[in-house]
Amino acid sequence: MNRYFNALAIAYLLGLLLWLLGRTLWFDQFWLLALLNTHAFFLLLPLGLFLPYALWQKHWWLLAGFAIPSIFALHWFAPLFLPQAIAPVSPSSDATTLRLMSFNLLWDNEDYDAIAQAIQTDNPDVIGFQELRPEHLSALQTQLAPDYPYSIVHPTPDFHTVGVLSRFPLTEVQTLANPPIERGLQMQLQLPGRSLRLLITHLAPNNMFHFKPAEWIPLTRQRYSQRQAQVEVIQALVESSPAPVVMLCDCNMSDTSQTYEQLRRVLQDSFYEVGWGLGHTLLQRGSLPVQRVDFVWYRDPKAPIDKPSQSRLRSIKAEVGSAGASDHLPVFADLSLDP
Asked: What SS3 string covers 228-295?
């Protein structure tokens, strides 16, 4: 039995090393690598079985080999489990504290009581929606009035889109460039005595496997290429904004993909900075969280991205919200904006 398990462990290790070498050399340049990088969390999960086995059997050579993927796993996921109390962020006395939520409703979800309950439980000031239909917004405005007097919906002919409900006025509303961003809005969020640039986006989906097998590879190439182009547009928008920026996004990317790394060059991931746990928001079979694809991003363009302490805009809390009968859990963040 040990012989067969040893062979399985060696095959798994070689597969991991080959994938990590390809990732290091090319990242997401090829569709198969992009797909593997997106699901890195699940590729690394068996380490929890093979590492104790190698230790128990005293296979030091196998342990040495597994050290390489273990370093990658710790680099990616260990920071999510560090207590945020180590470096708590407290807003200044004259700061505006704002709670923002990103929520993919699921286009055919009509359980408005559950959606409204999820929103009321976490009580955000602004909600950016994905997979929103006009009837969704009308029903939610009825349920939640008068708490959210301001609303915007992307004027798209598609059967679902993006939109926003807000306690604060929304001005200078524009759609993002299409192509490549099919569903995206930018606007000015007018807060008492200050304002910030708000983006609501829904990037290219990962539903290739809902199609016929013959379409999987071309669709995977097309979706990853489109998402790459979308991220480049967002990078340019953020870098050109003189005002602080917040983006509420179903980005359809995991935090081990190339596009995530690109966004982190210009934006800060609120959950990664002050959240705790894996933060998975995408649900399978209605209840099993499997990936973190929903984000509250932010950036003060006047502060270096690697020196958040100098930023006027800071994240002080981030959590995954309550279920709302969707295949996504909402994610929200409390941001502090100094004058």
From this structure: HHHHHHHHHHHHHCCCCEEEEEECCCCCCCHHHHHHCCCCEEHHHHHCCCCCCCEEECCCEEEECCEE
- Assign 102 to helix, strand or coil: strand
Q: How far apart are CA 129 and CA 43, in angstroms?
A: 31
Model pTM score: 0.95
Residue pair 249/202 in contact by the 8 Å Cβ criterion: yes
- Whether residue 89 is predicted with pLDDT greater than 60 in this model: the reply is yes
Location of structure tokens 């998402």: 227
Report the share of the chain in percent with pLDDT over 70. Answer: 97
The amino acid occupying position 52 is P
What is the H or E stretch that residue 41 is in?
helix 40-44
* pLDDT tens per residue across span 268-308: 999 999 999 999 999 997 789 999 999 999 999 888 887 87
Give the N- to C-terminal CA distance of the chain in Å, as an integer: 66
